[in-house]
Amino acid sequence: MPTNKEQIVNFSRNIAILRIVFGLMWAVDAFFKWSSSFRNSYINQIQSASQGQPSWLHPWFSFWIGLNRIDPHLFATLVAIIETFIALALVLGFARRFIYIAGTAFSLLIWSVAEGFGGPYTSASVDIGTAIIYAIVFIALYQLDKLSTPSSWAIDKFLDVRLSWWSTFSNPKISKKKGE
Questions:
Q1: Residue 113 DSSP one-character state
Q2: DSSP secondary structure string, 18-71?
Q3: Which residues contact 70 (CB under 8 A, 6 or more apart)?
Q4: Distance between CA 22 and CA 20 in Å, rounded?
Q5: Cis omega (within 30 of 0) on the bond before 120?
Q6: Which of 22, 130, 144, 148 has the CA that lies 20 to 30 A from 15?
Q7: Own/partner pairs for 80-84, CB < 8 Å, 24+ apart?
């Protein structure tokens, strides 16, 4: 934990840079999600992820394939919208607490459905999937943001001043009740 004022400012700035770079990565991913090729192959990607999985996971994949078959283009568009929102929120520093938690959950959902838990795991397996790593980065950002001072590189800092209730969405720190 940084001790002097300059170290604290540098620490907070570095966390903001990490958040912004991570947001730019999400923006690139979101850009690809808006392509017609993604929307046209969306259900096939989920079906492919289910191939070779253990039999006890078949109900999980059957549920998601069945749900997404209702309207694959709608679900593909929802994925693109969610990824775009996550990217913008990370880059702008908007609703950080909410985005870190929602981003973790969304990354785990992608990992467990579209990436098939990174499996199936065989002797030829070389990757556990990227979405699980995204979830870990979201958790790390949440924890690091708790240790830093409010970043001037975040819209949240300005909204917190103007909207007293906004810190519920923006601030990963656990706020103490008055009088504690």
A1: T
A2: HHHHHHHHHHHHHHHHTSHHHHHHHHHHHHHHHTT--GGGHHHHHHHHHHHHT-
A3: none
A4: 5
A5: yes
A6: 130
A7: 80/30, 80/33, 80/34, 80/38, 82/106, 83/26, 83/29, 83/30, 83/33, 84/27, 84/30, 84/33, 84/34
pLDDT tens digits, 152-174: 788 988 888 898 888 888 877 75
Instruction: Give me the residue spans of the domains in the chain.
Output: 5-120+127-170
Q: Which residue type does 166 have?
A: W
Handedness of CA 138, 80, 61, 50 (dihedral sign): negative
CB 91 within 8 A of CB 20: yes
- Whose CA is closest to 172, among 152, 147, 146? 146
